[in-house]
Design brief:
By secondary structure, this protein is α/β, with parallel strands linked by helices. The protein is built from four helices and four strands; from the N terminus they run βαβαβαβα. Helix 3 links the parallel strand 3 and strand 4. It starts with 5 loop residues before the first strand and ends with a helix.
């Protein structure tokens, strides 16, 4: 992946404040559907992350169904420093 992806962290704001990937955007999983139009305006590809990869997997599945170029990065600590 040559182009730097947009990192979206789908954890809760409290979890996000406890540590996150620098430059990432916090959009909690429960807000993904409501903020779909906003997400469509983000630079793609998008890499989603959370604590373990479960919530980001759900978000990746939903966004992929809506034509968004995205992938599940897993836990935020796995994504941190990777891009």
């Amino acid at each position: 992946m040559s182009e730097k992806p947009t990192i979206v962290d789908v954890r809760t704001p409290a979890e996000y404040m406890g540590g996150h990937v620098q430059g990432s955007i916090n959009i909690p999983l429960q807000e993904i559907e409501a903020r779909l139009d906003e997400i469509k305006t983000l630079k793609q590809p998008i890499v989603l992350c959370c604590a373990s990869g479960m919530r980001s997997g759900q978000a990746t599945h939903f966004l992929s169904q809506h034509g968004i170029d995205c992938s599940n990065g897993g836990g935020w600590t796995d994504v941190n420093g990777k891009y």
